[in-house]
Amino acid sequence: ESSLHLPAPKDVMVDSYNFRSSLRWSPVKVDRGLVLYTVHFKTGAFNQWDEMNCTRIAQTECHFPWSLKERCWTVVLRVRAELGQVASDWAETDPFVAERNTTIGPPKLNSVTARSDSLLISVTPPFASEAGDFLQYHVSYWENATTTTKKETQTSNTLFKIGDLKEMTLYCFRIQVELMTHSHLQLLGLQSVPECHTTTIS
């Protein structure tokens, strides 16, 4: 009798980076046969389960379809294991809201131009912004000799300057993005790895 029982998938979680989201779970182990998985979703607006583009798949990951790209929607997902005619119980996620729960990566650094008293920095946002978004770049920088004293500046421009620097000196900086959405949520992104440049001589 127990051979007919299939355990539900465990470690079910939404993995979301820069608003690209997918559902992941741990594989269900059985003695023989290939376990397949089916994923459903429902939104806060309609309390009704729908199929995602992941029905009877062998992978333990399912990417969100384009139809779920709205960042402010509340989405609940569920996945079950299937082996032949036998199906496990559903394993359900907590409600997921992309603009609250995604991880924002650091901006892409395009170029750094060193001058005698400043560094001119050009970045690209980590994701395509939507109407109503406001992006703020938090920049912390320090003279490499004195890593203890960091200075902070913030800007909403993708081209900006760190000024009042000493000439012929090595400076390092890190940047992180803060997103403010039209629904007034604030989301602080991951910091970039430190980047170091030496100012020129005047």
Automatic annotation (TrEMBL):
MF terms (GO), sorted A to Z: cytokine receptor activity
Domain Fibronectin type-III: 103-202
Pfam families assigned to the protein according to its UniProt record, in alphabetical order: Interfer-bind, Tissue_fac
Cellular-component GO terms for this entry: plasma membrane
Protein name, per record: INGR2 protein
Organism: Chordeiles acutipennis (Lesser nighthawk)
Lineage: Eukaryota, Metazoa, Chordata, Craniata, Vertebrata
